[in-house]
Specification:
There is one protein chain. By secondary structure, the protein is of the alpha+beta class. It is 24% helix and 39% strand. The protein contains nine helices and 20 strands. A ten-stranded antiparallel barrel has the order 4-5-6-7-10-11-12-14-15-16. Helix 1 packs across helix 2, helix 2 packs antiparallel against helix 8 and helix 7 crosses helix 8.
C-alpha cells in the first residue's frame, strides 16, 4: 500500500480540484492513511516474536499529527449514565449517547491465528486520527451517530497544516429491531428477521460507509456497572474494509464480533474477525483470525469548528443520501452495491458534490436531493447484478 505523507496529500487534493476537505482527503483516508500521533516511533509489543521484525512493521499512516490534550475528568455523558434512577432502556440509551464526543482515535489490527500450514502473518495495521462524533438523530428507541475526521498534520518543516475534514462512518442504533441489515457476500445485501429472543432487550448497531452506503449490522445487549458499560454484538458478515481491500484478494468476507466498552473518558471498540474465503455464497475456508482494538480517547481544547462548517454546508445533501439508501434498504429485498459509479470509486461522486457545496456553490435542496438519489441509483442495483460488470466485488 502506498503511504501518503503531507506532500502526497497535497497531490491527492490537487488531483480533485484542490478540495482537500472533500474528495482529496477522502481518497487519502480511504487508503488507510491517517496520521500517526507523533513523529517518534512507538513500540509494537504484541505480535509474532519469531517472525523477523522487518516483516511485522505496522502499515498505516505515516504523517505526523498535531498534539492534543487528553481529558482527565469523567465526561458529562458518563455522569448521566451513572444516575441511579435510570430505567434499563434509558441506561442503554445513555451509554449509546456517551459514544458522542471529541476524540483522539487509534486503530490497531493484528492477525493472531493462521489456518493454512506454512502461511505467514500479514503485517499489522495501525492508524490514528482526531475525530468528532455527533448525534444526528435520537428518539426513545433510536440513536444515529455521525463520525467526522478533522485532521491537522505537521510537515517535515514542523509547520502545522489543516484542517482537513472528512465525513467518516455512521452508526445507527435501534432498540428491539424486527429486522436488520445482512451482508450476503460479493457486494450483495438483504435484511433478516430477528427472533423474539434475539430482539428482547437488545439493540442493533448498523454501520454505514463514509458515503452512507451500507456495511453491516449486529445485535447485542448492554450491561452496566460502576466502571463501564459494555455492548457485545453477535457475529455478522461484513465486506472487507478498505485497509484490507487495497492489499488482499484471497478472501471476501470478514465475519466479526464487536465489543464496545464505554468508560469515563472515552470508549474502546474491540473486534474479533474471521477472514473468510467464499465459494459462491458458501464459506470455502477461513484464512486467518484477526483482533482489532480501536480506542476513542476524549480530548479537550481541539478545534473542531471545521466539522461544524462542513455540516452546515453539506447537511441537507447527506440527509438526502441517507434517505435514498433507506428507500433502497427498507423494503427488505436483496440488492447489490457497485464497486464504482461512472468509472470512479463509489464514494467519489458524493464527496465531489459535497465539496461543491462546501466551496459555497448555491444549490437548492431539491437539486441536492435529486443528486443524492442519482448517486445511490448509480451504486445500488438488483442482487443479480452483483456478478456482472462493475458491480463485481465492490468491497
Amino acid at each position: 500500500m502506498e503511504q501518503l505523507g503531507v506532500l502526497a496529500l497535497r497531490r491527492v487534493a490537487s488531483k480533485f480540484g484542490g478540495i482537500a476537505s472533500a474528495v482529496g482527503v477522502a481518497a487519502w483516508l480511504a487508503l488507510g492513511c491517517a496520521s500517526s500521533p507523533s513523529g517518534s516511533a512507538t513500540p509494537y509489543v504484541f505480535g509474532w516474536p519469531f517472525v523477523p521484525a522487518e516483516q511485522m512493521q505496522p502499515r498505516g499512516g505515516t504523517t505526523r499529527g498535531a498534539d492534543v490534550t487528553l481529558a482527565t475528568a469523567p465526561s458529562a455523558a458518563w455522569q448521566r449514565l451513572q444516575a441511579a434512577d435510570l430505567a434499563p432502556l434509558d441506561r442503554d440509551r445513555a451509554a449509546i449517547l456517551a459514544l458522542a464526543g471529541d476524540y483522539r482515535t487509534s486503530f490497531d489490527f493484528l492477525e493472531v491465528v493462521l489456518y493454512q500450514p506454512g502461511a505467514q502473518p500479514a503485517r499489522p495495521y495501525r492508524s490514528w486520527g482526531t475525530e468528532q462524533i455527533t448525534v444526528l438523530e435520537q428518539r426513545t428507541d433510536f440513536v444515529s451517530l455521525q463520525h467526522t475526521l478533522v485532521m491537522f498534520v505537521v510537515d517535515d518543516a514542523g509547520e502545522r497544516r489543516g484542517p482537513f475534514v472528512q465525513k467518516h462512518w455512521r452508526q445507527d442504533w435501534q432498540y428491539e429491531p424486527a429486522r436488520q441489515l445482512a451482508y450476503l457476500g460479493h457486494g450483495r445485501f438483504g435484511t433478516r428477521a430477528l427472533a423474539p429472543d434475539e430482539r428482547r432487550g437488545a439493540w442493533s448497531q448498523t454501520v454505514y460507509q463514509v458515503d452512507d452506503s451500507p456495511r453491516f449490522a449486529a445485535t447485542g445487549r448492554w450491561r452496566h456497572d460502576a466502571q463501564a458499560s459494555v455492548w457485545d454484538g453477535a457475529s455478522a458478515w461484513r465486506p472487507l474494509p478498505r485497509r484490507e481491500r487495497s492489499v488482499r484478494s484471497d478472501y471476501q468476507v470478514l465475519a466479526g464480533r464487536n465489543r464496545l466498552t464505554v468508560l469515563p473518558t472515552g470508549w474502546v471498540h474491540e473486534q474479533d474477525n474471521e477472514k473468510l474465503a467464499l465459494d459462491g455464497s458458501a464459506v470455502a475456508a477461513s484464512r486467518a483470525r484477526e483482533l482489532g482494538v480501536n480506542r476513542y480517547e476524549q480530548i479537550v481544547g481541539f478545534d473542531f469548528s471545521a466539522s461544524d462548517a462542513y455540516w452546515r454546508a453539506t447537511g441537507d445533501f447527506w440527509a438526502g443520501v441517507r434517505a435514498a439508501w433507506a428507500a433502497r434498504i427498507d423494503p427488505g429485498e436483496d440488492f447489490a452495491v457497485a464497486r464504482t459509479c461512472e468509472g470512479e470509486e463509489g464514494f467519489v461522486a458524493s464527496f465531489r458534490f459535497a465539496g461543491r457545496l462546501e466551496s459555497g456553490e448555491a444549490l437548492s435542496i431539491d437539486a441536492q436531493r435529486a443528486e443524492a438519489r442519482r448517486i445511490v441509483a448509480c451504486l445500488a442495483g438488483a442482487a443479480a447484478d452483483a456478478t456482472h460488470g462493475d458491480r463485481t466485488e465492490r468491497y
